[in-house]
Amino acid sequence: MAEEDVIQFGEELARFGEVRAGELDAETRQDYQTALDAYESARRMVDKLTSAESVSTVVDTLTAGRYALACARARVTGAPLPERRTPCFFNPQHGPSSTDVVWTPASGPTRRVPACAQDAARIRAGEDLPVRMVRYGEVQVPAWEAGAPNEPYKVGFFSASPARAQVIELRSQLKGEGRGRWGIDFGKRKRPRLPYD
Hints:
- The strands form 2 sheets. A two-stranded antiparallel sheet has the order 1-2.
- It has helices at residues 2-20, 26-47, 55-77, 117-125, 151-156, 163-175; strands spanning 99-103, 111-115, 133-136, 139-142.
- It is 47% helix and 9% strand.
- Strand 3 (133-136) and strand 4 (139-142) form a beta hairpin.
């Protein structure tokens, strides 16, 4: 998954560069360079992955790169700069989300999830969503149904939002002696539900 994401992001950067390279002002060039640097860094990290947990770092890097590319696109079109948000829930390759939508999966309760502008429009129109599918055993399933194998991706997505610090804090509490920073005892409770659980 990490390698596929890096390749897809590289192709997206190449397409943007081919069309826009000659018309970028200084700020847009800086955003584009930030995105290129993120791509190169993520590509090097993928080549050296040693564990599933280390995928989170690749996801963090790609999230930052996608945000920089979204800023470059906004500058070129004269649109407002996007808010720094978590990636689109339905497919992180779509880049940062622009809004939260109410969505009911085929199996599960209704929930609020972050979505890119295109996917939010598709939900409002009742259209099918181009979701990120991943291999789980012998079948392809939406990424959010992959469970533990997809956990590094879930954690990595929080780099773009204030929730990242909260997730790290909760995880450190659970790995410690069972008592959190504010004296909350998690020892006899289930793990707190984190976003995307």
